[in-house]
Amino acid sequence: LEVLDLYGNWVGDSNFSDFLNALITFKNTTLRSLTFGFNNYSDPSAYKLAEYLKLNTDLAHLSMFCDPLSMTDGFKALINSIKTHPSLTSLETSGFFRGGASTLAQELLTENTHLTKCTLSLCQFDSKKAADLLKSLPQESQLKELGLYCNCIEDKDLAEFLEALANNHTLEHIDLRLH
After folding, report:
1. Structure confidence by residue, pLDDT tens digits, 56-80
2. What distance in Å separates the CA atoms of residue 162 and residue 145, rounded to the nearest whole number?
3. What is the pTM of this model?
4. Which of 26, 32, 109, 179 is buried deepest, with most CB atoms within 10 A?
């Protein structure tokens, strides 16, 4: 099993946690792509997913949609696992880094230099937060694609964002739809 898409199943926290437990118990390391969202999970599953990411060091793509765990311990454990994952090159999130969690998004992009594609949509990033995110990217970053669609980037603060973008020499594609 290399690709698993659980998007939109509303499986609930205990079922999602049980599913992740099975992957861990059977030491599944063949998954290269895991997509989930709209599954109504919380801390127990976030901890299990963090544990699975430590087991499966070959996972290359992770998509998490509309299951915000903002600032909980499980969320922090999950982000720490993502930050240190050795082969994760594509991360898609939606509604994950809301409010004060934007600093965690910065840490993630600063510390995981393997990411080539990252989507941070529906995170309520304004122009300043988006500019700060661009400024925080390390010189050795491999990030080529950054999705910031459906955030709160407005004209009034756009100059700072554009300046940060002009100073970035790694990004090839940035998605700013629906602001």
Report:
1. 999 999 998 765 555 678 888 888 9
2. 16
3. 0.90
4. 109
Query: What's at 148, amino acid-wise?
Result: L
Residue from 175, 178, 141, 150 nearest 167 by CA: 141
Alpha-carbon gap, residue 10 to 108, rounded angstroms: 27
